[in-house]
Design a protein that fits this description.
This protein is of the alpha/beta class. The protein is built from ten helices and five strands; from the N terminus they run βαβαβαβαβαααααα.
Length: 219
């Protein structure tokens, strides 16, 4: 039997934490292992519990979500963090992604989207809502990385994979689409991130969208 996905919920509003926990407690294969009320507590809980996925609110008193993401990923580079956002906090999404978050979810998203996003982030894949992506892209004027892409260009197959990553497809879905193995997809994704000096699939998706290699209309 597969172990459940262990989730840490971080939000300064008790009603949000309790509501999210109540929802996830009904979902087979997901276990809420802890809650945190602010960024500092989130960092401590992440170290103590080593959860599979962290649901992170961005707007909190004291240490906010972006600071907490940076602190957590500095100590636990493999941490899988899904940020919860609202339209009022859109300007914080890209900094959160740069800090190490794998994706974002609107706070008014339905239960199905929440569960799907948790499962996808747990697999190490990004979850980027098209509505958020449009606003993020409007504000992105600098390169996705402080370093220029490597002189070694992406191969045609790597571009194919990057375009599908930007559409939000999982490794399994990309493998099926291109008729290759998941292991080959993982290798291509790793090569893409290395050549573009990017840290995550989410950054790669933003890069592809900004450079015109993919369109949000395709998602």
């Amino acid at each position: 039997m597969t172990d459940p996905i262990r989730v840490l919920i971080v939000d300064d509003h008790a009603i949000v934490r309790k509501g999210t926990r109540a929802l996830l407690d009904t979902e087979a294969g997901i276990e809420v292992v802890g809650e945190a009320t602010d960024g500092r507590e989130a960092v401590a809980q992440a170290q103590r519990l080593d959860p599979d996925v962290i649901l992170m609110d961005l707007v909190m008193p004291g240490m906010d979500g972006i600071e907490a993401i940076g602190a957590i990923t500095a100590e636990q580079p493999e941490a899988r963090i899904l940020v919860l956002t609202s339209f009022a906090a859109d300007d914080k999404v890209f900094p959160a992604i740069k800090a190490g978050a794998l994706g974002d979810l609107l706070e008014d998203a339905g239960p199905e989207d929440l569960v799907a996003a948790i499962r996808q982030v747990w697999r190490g894949e990004s979850w980027l809502h098209p509505t958020i992506a449009r606003k993020v892209l409007q504000e992105v004027s600098s390169p996705a990385s402080d370093q220029p892409p490597t002189a070694d260009p992406l191969t045609k197959r790597e571009v194919d994979v990057l375009q599908l990553v930007a559409q939000g497809l999982s490794n399994q879905q990309i493998a099926q689409e291109l008729v290759i193995t998941e292991g080959t997809v993982r290798t291509h994704v790793s090569n893409i991130l290395g050549k573009l000096h990017l840290a995550s699939r989410t950054q790669a998706a933003l890069y592809a969208l900004r450079e015109g290699l993919a369109s949000l209309d395709e998602t």
